[in-house]
Amino acid sequence: MASGNSVFKELEPDNEVPEYLKHALVAEVDTIRNTMQVVTLFTEHFLSAITIGLSFNENE
Fold first, then answer.
1. Sign of the torsion formed by the C-alpha atoms of 13, 15, 21 and 23
2. b (16+ CB within 10 A) / e for 21-49
């Protein structure tokens, strides 16, 4: 394979990350973190409610 000047190497420089890529990465991390918080809150409250409901039925 020829190792001449490639047009693709000139698209973005190697030594710096573009701002749009930084913002996109931060947005993805925020989305993942927010999703995990929703899942954690839902499962904690859901399992707590089931546990309380089961213990309430056993006490009667």
1. negative
2. eeeeeeeeeeeeeeeeeeeeeeeeeeeee
pTM of the entire structure?
A: 0.54
The residue with tokens 């989305």 is 31
In angstroms, the CA 37 to CA 57 distance is 30
**pLDDT digit string, tens, across residues 5-33:** 677 777 766 778 889 999 999 999 999 99
Amino acid type, 37: Q
Question: What's the rounded Cα separation, in Å, for the pair 40 and 17?
Answer: 33
